[in-house]
Design goal:
Helices cover 35% and strands 25% of the residues. The chain is α/β, with parallel strands linked by helices. It has one domain: Rossmann fold (3-Layer(aba) Sandwich). It has a six-stranded mixed beta sheet, with helices on both faces. Strands 2-1-4-5 form a four-stranded antiparallel beta sheet, with helices on one face. The protein is globular. It starts with a strand and ends in a 9-residue tail after the last helix. The relative contact order is 0.18. The model has no long low-confidence stretch (mean pLDDT 94). The structure holds adenosine-5'-triphosphate. The site of adenosine-5'-triphosphate has 12 residues, from strand 2 and helix 1. InterPro entries: AAA+_ATPase, ABC_transporter-like_ATP-bd, ABC_transporter-like_CS, MetN_ABC_transporter-like, P-loop_NTPase. This is Methionine ABC transporter ATP-binding protein. Keywords: Amino-acid transport, ATP-binding, Cell membrane, Membrane, Nucleotide-binding, Translocase, Transport. It comes from Cytobacillus mangrovibacter. Pfam families: ABC_tran (PF00005).
Length: 249
């Protein structure tokens, strides 16, 4: 569970987040949507204290993060994974090494690391690409490595900052499918910041609309499901000609 209580954050004189309170219950897939500059990413980064609030309290998994010293905060963050729009993989490390690094940092028992890395890569469908480097992967595959890395330490919460905004519709579906699977299989609470309405509508069961640093409203929604993309040339022609009834040149 994530609880923000009257949280505020300013950058110089600019009030990016204005006394926001929000509760996200365990097991939710919670979307945060709104116009550019509304404060979505800042709100997400306040949930793991990547941004330190000027005022207010942040509680995650029953722990008040805003009360913890830096050592305790590092420990608490192990149960909060995060993924980013631009994946943030280490370019000169292999897929395997990118995931292993997060276990090393968390001092995960050495003998169990290899099995855990493989288990996580298998979960995201990339155990066949362990020796590749990020530059050899598609955008969707890179994001799946980032998800495996975030998953490695068994987080209870996964924070996703524009996770599909660098991806085409096909790979967007692939990444959303993995996120949904993580939620269903392990009960991980997922928060997704996105400016893409279709993304929020497809897998989120709750959504918060932000405007000018405040919450406009939080609504319960019935996820519409992930759009299956047809990559056939016929599909593209049908889309271009709407009903597919235009004569071909
Ligand atoms: N580190 C920072 N220093 C100064 N201003 C910042 C910083 N981070 C965010 N801001 C400002 O705070 C406001 C909210 O930014 P934020 O990135 O949270 O918005 P957003 O809703 O996620 O927008 P976008 O969809 O464009 O990323 C913006 O005006 C932004 O310029």
């Amino acid at each position: 569970m994530i609880k923000l209580h009257q949280v505020s954050k300013s950058f110089s004189q600019f009030h990016a987040i204005k006394s926001v309170s929000l509760t996200i219950n365990k097991g939710e897939i919670h979307g945060i949507i709104g116009a550019s500059g509304a404060g979505k990413s800042t709100l997400l980064r306040l949930m793991n204290l990547l941004e330190i609030p000027d005022e207010g309290e942040v509680e995650v998994n029953g722990q008040r993060l805003t009360n913890l010293n830096s050592k305790a905060l590092r420990q608490a963050r192990k149960s909060i994974g995060m993924i980013f729009q631009h994946f943030n993989l280490v370019a000169n490390k292999t897929v395997y090494e990118n995931v292993a690094v997060s276990l090393e940092l968390a001092k995960f028992p050495k003998r169990e690391r290899r099995n855990r890395v493989i288990e996580c890569l298998r979960f995201v469908g990339l155990d066949g690409l362990m020796e590749k480097y990020p530059a050899q992967l598609s955008g969707g595959q890179k994001q799946r490595v980032a998800i495996a890395r975030a998953l490695a330490n068994n987080p209870q919460v996964l924070l996703c900052d524009e996770p599909t905004s660098s991806l085409d519709p096909n790979t967007t579906g692939e990444v959303l499918g993995v996120l949904e699977n993580i939620n269903k299989s392990f009960g991980v609470t997922i928060v997704i910041v996105s400016h893409e309405m279709e993304v929020v509508k497809s897998i989120c069961n709750h959504a918060t609309v932000m405007a000018a640093g405040e919450i406009y409203e939080t609504v319960v929604i019935d996820p519409s499901g992930i759009q299956q993309i047809d990559n056939s040339p016929k599909y593209f022609i049908n889309q271009l000609t709407e009903a597919g009834d235009m004569s071909h040149a």
